[in-house]
Amino acid sequence: MTSPHQTPLGWWSANSGSLAIETADIAEAIGDVKAPLLIVATSRGLGLARGGVGLLGIERPDSQAFSVVGMVPPVRLDQLGDASFRQDFGLRFNYVSGAMAAGIGSERIAEEMAHQGMLGIFGAAGLSLARVEAAIDRLMPLTAHVRATSKLVDASSRPSDSSPVSQPFGFNLIHSPNDQSLERALVDLYLRRDVRVVEASAFLDLTPHVVRYRLHGIHRGVHGEICTPNRLIAKVSRIEVGSKFFAPPPAKILSQLVEQGAITVEQAQLAESIPVAQDITAEADSGGHTDNRPALTLLPTILALRDRAAAQYAFVQSLRVGAAGGISTPASAAAALAMGAAYILVGSVQQACVESGTCDAVRQMLAEAEQADVTMCPCADMFEMGVKVQVLKRGTMFPMRAAKLYETYRNYSGIAAIPAAEREWLEKNLFRTSLEDVWRQTVEYFSTRDPQQIEKGTRDPKHQMALLFRWYLGQSSRWANSGEPSRRLDYQIWCGPAMGAFNEWTRGTFLARAENRRVATVAHNLLYGAAVMQRLNALRTQGFPITPELTRLAPQEPDVIRPWFER
After folding, report:
1. Do 227 and 221 meet the contact criterion of CB atoms below 8 Å apart?
2. pLDDT tens across 194-230, in order?
3. What is the sign, positive or negative, of the torsion defined by CA atoms of 286, 291, 292, 297?
4. Average pLDDT for residues 357-361, to the nearest whole number?
């Protein structure tokens, strides 16, 4: 029978097809994401038909035929998101593992993402140049190996701008306003080693270094097209920053680079026709550096910026916007894609996986986190500016201790001005050594990295105090990554509320256990779950009743979900 408000679109005959009416059968039909569904009216209400014979726009062929009142198309997991993003980066799936600093976004994550036809970004922030180059050494063979051996990556795909290298991984470049020499040295390293994909994060403005990376090797192809071998993905959460990445490089920086011999006059002219970044990740409420922007307002804002920039500059290269921050469940992944995200980027959840560069103790702490177990506190790299990062507060005293250090920094002109009792408390509880010893270690650290910091600290007591306090802030993340047991209460663990949402989704399932969390399994469940959510929403908009039983998308075991991602 047909509802009086539902005019038949056609008719369906079972033949060898199947009709799902019971809840369990309906859930199974919806979960078969590769199969198209017909919504048919029966004497028991609406059901879902697969297979059989569907005839549209004709009279009822026989008395056994069911009226068709709606349709749900199949969902291909390798077509979620923007197709040009997959083509340009040589991927199969529009899924990115973010660059969690200090190597938490590890080589193992990047390798696994590459083998799954996804993109992993190595977290280079906070690491020495030697450590970053060691990661480059390990990941570079993936460029040839993955394309030759992977069953998942399309070996025929190549970048649309004919870049000579399509690497299935990337490296992070974090803005360092207090250490421009480090930013410059990282760019030098990436250019020397032909790193073709860089994620730029925490930038407040464009710098000559990030522009130099983007423009290195820019040229005209054999057909006159502008080719940019280096790809830049900018992670931003403010429209004023995003507008600079979705625009040509500033003339002032171009002139500076020409004068330095970093680019030629011709390359500077070509640069006027390309965006600094073709891809922007709209970073909402995430772990680490974040402006705590809500995804539901940030993503549409950056998408609108994309449209304005595309109209204003008429770039040949298409502008794309991905989504990050808060993506940790099928519902959030589906929402981002439905809103127009070209790709999704996952961070906090990846940190909780066994391949991440942190320790088992931290992974267990993350597995126990809830939505409210995060807070903002001062960061090491922009301490003097009062910039904060989002961290886990459950099971650690780091947020309170970091706030205490910043309060002390603001209240006193230097170490000598700190009252004796307060200084004693800091040395006993935070540093666990004398400030003189901390200064000795600080001098040793900066003597090769940036000697100017020591010179300034020697002249300026306030700057010396900042360097001393940054020692604790910097060490706290290293203690967490290495699992230093004596410093558990000082662990600095970057984490966003997405972790709590993930834990709630996985509660009572195999993914509730930290040792079962693997990046491929998590990625597969998020993408597959997003596809199921798309089908549920398509059914809902056509009047099909969606019960709570249908929306409970429990994570699937690796052996169960993996076949959906094979060709």
Report:
1. yes
2. 999 999 999 999 999 999 999 999 999 999 999 999 9
3. negative
4. 98
Structural contact between residues 79 and 565, judged by C-beta atoms closer than 8 angstroms: no
Site of tokens 């267990």 = 364
Residue 125's Cβ-count burial label (10 Å; 0-12, 13-18, 19+) is: buried
Q: Are strands 197-201 and 169-174 parallel, antiparallel or unpaired?
A: parallel
Tokens of 82: 């923007």
Beta bridge partners of 390: 288, 376
Taking only the tens place, the pLDDT of each residue in 311-338 is 999 999 999 999 999 999 999 999 999 9
Are 230 and 293 in contact, with CB atoms under 8 Å apart? no
User: What mean pLDDT is predicted for residues 510-518?
Assistant: 98
234-256: pLDDT as tens digits: 999 999 999 999 999 999 999 99
pLDDT digits (tens, 9 = 90+) for 179-190: 788 899 999 999
Q: Classify domain 78-358 at the CATH superfamily level.
A: Aldolase class I (3.20.20.70)
Strand intervals (E) in 213-291: 219-220, 226-227, 231-236, 279-283, 288-289
Instruction: Give the whole-number percent of the chain exceeding pLDDT 90.
Output: 86
Amino acid at position 318, single letter? S
Q: Distances from the Cα of 222 to the Cαs of 165, 218, 228, in angstroms? A: 17, 13, 13
**Residue type at position 172:** N
Give the start-to-end residue ranges of the domains of the chain. 1-74, 78-358, 367-490
- Can you spell out the DSSP letters for 359-396? -HHHHHHHHT--TTSEEEEE-STTGGGT-EEEEE-TT-
